[in-house]
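B., you asked whether I could sanity-check this one before it goes into the benchmark set. Here's the sequence:
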Amino acid sequence: MTNQTLIVFVDFSKQLIGWVKKAKYALLDVNLFPKLSLVPKPRNKDAKNKDARDYASDVMIYLWDNYISLTEARQVVLIGHGPGCQNLMDLLNQRTVSVMKSVRAVVQVVGNYNIPATPRDADELRNWYYQHSYVVVPSGHRFLLDGNKFLKKHGRVLPIGKSTTWWYIPVTHFDIDEPKPILLITKSFPSICDFITQMIAAKSGTLVNGAS
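And here's what the prediction gave me:
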């Protein structure tokens, strides 16, 4: 692999895959839904959920160690949606140093799943994640309905349902009230692409729409 930009999808959409190919970036599409034969038989429902998460996180770490980190790509973008968002966070926690060195952006299309957060005692990772993340949730997410406020550990969560300048990127936010992650992707697709483009350009020093 000779492309300097590598986009890593975790159970993502054909729409964004098409955009990545058109931009001539390298692509790694990861399906984290495990085959039943590969996951030990769970003792109960809680154990089943934990086993599935552990399996998926192990897959991500294996791919990072044996494929992603061995490529020539120095502008890696990690993109996940739904339950795959937590597995990306597990990767960040387990491979913090190498991830911070190579990853330029992390996009999390959470849907109504729990919003991943950096660990309490990982200040360096928390600061880095806040500066490099783009987190999409529906306006009806229970976290918002319960009156909670997004903290730095959650990354940069988009203001929903209005036009604004988010960080240094002008973004028009649609009324993202669709709870299904795959449909959230469709609604937030333009801003996701803009974010990735700006983050890659910012690192390389390229001017994009007046930003540097």
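One thing to flag: Helices lie at 14-22, 45-66, 84-94, 96-102, 123-132, 142-145, 181-204. Otherwise nothing jumped out at me.
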